[in-house]
Amino acid sequence: MPVASLAQAIPFFDYPATFQTEEEDLLAIVRETGRRGAFILQKDLARFERNLAEYLGSRHALGVANATDGLLIALRAAGLGTGAEIIFSSHTMVATAAAIHFSGATPVPVECAADHLIDPDAVEEAVTPRTRAILVSQLNGRTADMEKLGAIATRRELFVIEDAAQALGSKFRGRSAGTFGLAGAISFYPAKMLGCLGDGGAVTTNDDLIQERMVALHDHGRGSSGEIAGWGLNSRLDNVQAAILDYRLKKMDAMIQRRRHIAAIYRQYFKGLDELVLPPGPEDTTGHFDVYQNYEIEADRRDALRDFLKIRGIGTILPWGGKAVHQWPSLGFRAKLPFTEALFDRLLLLPLNLSLTDDQVTAVSTAIREFYRA
Ligand SMILES: *Cc1c(COP(=O)(O)O)cnc(C)c1O
To answer: Which CATH class for the 252-373 domain?
Structure first.
């Protein structure tokens, strides 16, 4: 079988391209902020926080070091910790559960549903007298049915916190991911919807008291007037990164449109391939606006398909290294989640990023058709 030449290779994600396509502008931003000595908690960060909050329709947005810290800070600000059980979907990054773990609370994994996001029925079944919150992962650039989850939370008197690390710009019934719960976390890891040149994140809230606590928690416990309000972390978003993010945030709508366009190409090419289950949308009549942080398919003969694509120079990855959170023995979970476990034998992430040309998306699609129809 011919091995694809490097020129034809389609990597799962092209990290150098994220820098090279904007190299001059990025260097100008670094030069300009650097010459001002504007490194920590400066005006560029404040401006980005304002613009991000406005973009989301959130009352507050606070830059933090990364989304994992953001989740931990949100949980602590909500007073969640030892003795509390917090429900999350096991189909998420380990970071979601790690934030719960380090808050002192107990992470309780549950099944995802057909759209790969947390299953509201499974949430309902997992509630105990110790349950205090639902941590909803807005996975793959899709926002969960927050009306259903919100109704459960209200009825059972639970907080909702959102892991919106993958979902900046995604909406449900016109409202942005990260604005439904008491607080939400967004990631600026380079491969996320809005990436910076390293680690970065933000936490959002509509609640002034939660915001005040999160401000202190992310900066050594310091309140707005400088007094130490309690124990805190050092988890600030670097000012230079914020300046870069503010520059990129202006391109957000175009970036989302491009991702949705690629998803539409995939959907069109895979029409009639019963061996695959595709993500929902992009056309939708049920209120979801998906932004395709990932294109996560279910595939028959998944491993053989993956090998077939690899030989053709097409990079794919298994979500979370191939296991749901509760399946890692080192973490000590005892839950059995048959739906999620069976799903993880079939999940595959196809390339979906801003470096791809339409021709490359077509090449990926054609190769997959070839695999099933040869
Ligand atoms: C990326 C990601 C995180 C962690 O974000 P960091 O900014 O890298 O800490 C958490 N949850 C989900 C679902 C993610 O995709």
So the answer is: alpha beta
